[in-house]
Amino acid sequence: MSQAPAFDEMTDAAGGARPGWAGLRAWLDAAPPGLLHGKRDKAAALPRRFGNTVCRRGEGGGEAAEAERTIPFDVIPRILSAAEGATVERGCIQRERVLNMFLHDIYHGQEILRGVRTSGGAEHMSTEVSRFREDEPNTN
User: Fold this and answer.
1) CB < 8 Å & 24+ apart, contacts of 103-107
2) Quick check: 39 and 52 in contact, CB under 8 A?
3) What is the spatial distance between Cα 102 and Cα 111, in angstroms, rounded to a whole number?
4) Using one digit for the tens of pLDDT, what is the confidence trace for 102-121?
5) At CB < 8 A and 24+ separation, what contacts does 78-85 make?
6) Residue of 99, 73, 77, 103 lying closest to 10 (CA atoms)
7) Strand pairing partners for 54?
8) What is the mean pLDDT of the chain?
């Protein structure tokens, strides 16, 4: 089974720069060979220096499974058209609204838990999470 080619955000099917990417592509073509590696290494060190790491548990077991990692960061920016930016903005607003509704429900009416089927029950599932805050009022 052959794998489909990866999508290249910067380059169109004819090999030219997509709209909005020409300036960055010209800069990248003119940049010295090691420049991006150095910038990537500097960018990768910042999150660890400031303590912005994630712990991905359960990958292969053992001590390595609980190693802290930085969130992947690409030094090459994503260039969006105004229309693409508007789509991303609408999606972010929608997700923020849904997350806030979910959190409000978890700490108040807990309607969402009535539909959860777990062996320990919905109450067990919600209160066993280490970040569940008992001090939040449970009122509608």
Assistant:
1) 107/133, 107/136, 107/137, 107/138
2) no
3) 9
4) 999 999 988 888 776 554 55
5) 78/9, 79/9, 79/20, 79/21, 79/24, 80/20, 81/19, 81/20
6) 77
7) 69
8) 79
Length of the chain as a residue count = 140
**Would you say the pTM of this structure is higher than 0.70?**
no
- H/E stretch holding 53 reads strand 53-55
Q: Which residues contact 124 (CB under 8 A, 6 or more apart)?
A: 118
Residue type for 95, please? R
Nearest to 57 by CA among 139, 134, 135, 130: 130
Cβ burial, residue 95 (10 Å; 0-12/13-18/19+): exposed
25: CB partners within 8 A, 6+ apart: 10, 11, 17
Strand 68-70 vs strand 53-55: parallel, antiparallel, or unpaired? Answer: antiparallel
Residue 63 is predicted with a pLDDT of: 57
